Amino acid sequence: QVQLVESGGGLVQAGGSLRLSCAASGRTFSSYGMGWFRQAPGKEREKVAAFIWFRNYTYHADSVKGRFTISRGAAVNTVYLQMNNLRPEDTAVYYCAAQVMRAGSYDYWGQGTQVTVSS
Question: Following DSSP, what letter does each residue of 91-112 receive, concatenated?
Fold first, then answer.
C-alpha cells in the first residue's frame, strides 16, 4: 500500500512563508511526477504546481507564479512546495499527488494539510 504524507501546513500572517513537504511511504513505486493541489471551501480543486521528473519540467499556476516554488527531494517520490508572500486567498487544504499509472494522471493522493493565511 502506498501513502503520500503531507506536512508543513499551519497558520501564517499575510506576507509570511511556509514550506510544505510530501513523502511517499509503503511499497516502492515509480512515478512520472508529482504535484500540489489545493481546495478552498466552496471552490473547485486547483492544481498549484507540478514537477515532471523525466523532463525536469515544472509547472506553476498563474495565481502562484513568483511566490511558490515546487522542488523535488533527494529521496524518491518526495516533493516540496515553498510558499512565500502568502495571501489570504491562498487559504486552502493542500494536497500532494503522484502520477503513477500513466503520465498526466494523478493516481495517488495524500490526506491534505491545512494552510490558513490571516490578513
Answer: -EEEEEEEE-SSTT-EEEE---
The reported pLDDT for the residue numbered 2 is 81
**Percent of the chain having pLDDT more than 90?**
81
Instruction: In whole angstroms, give the CA distance from residue 97 to residue 114.
Output: 15
Q: What is the DSSP string of 42-110?
A: TS--EEEEEEETTTTEEEE-TTTTTTEEEEE-SSTTEEEEEE-S--GGG-EEEEEEEE-SSTT-EEEE-
Give the residue-averaged pLDDT of 4-12: 97
Residues 49 and 38 sit within 8 Å (Cβ to Cβ): no
Asked if residues 103 and 32 have their Cβ atoms less than 8 Å apart, the reply is yes
Give the model confidence (pLDDT) of 33-45 as tens digits. 999 999 999 999 9
